[in-house]
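Protein data sheet
==================
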Amino acid sequence: MKTVCCLCNKAESHQGWVEELVQSDVLSHGYCPECFERAMAQMKKEINGKPFLKRLGRNSFSR
């Protein structure tokens, strides 16, 4: 099974993260290290910009 980055589509191999992918491989999606760092930085920026419950809306957890 090959792990493919869900953002840049690079595939993980024994040589690191590469752009070529064999079509017959079984795939699992995740993040390559570069895209993971960018995604985490963006998420932290968004979280720090607004309080959590205000982002979700006040009544998000009420029934």
Confidence is low (pLDDT under 50) at residues 59-63. The helical segments are 33-49, 52-56. The radius of gyration is 17 Å. Residues 2-56 form one domain.
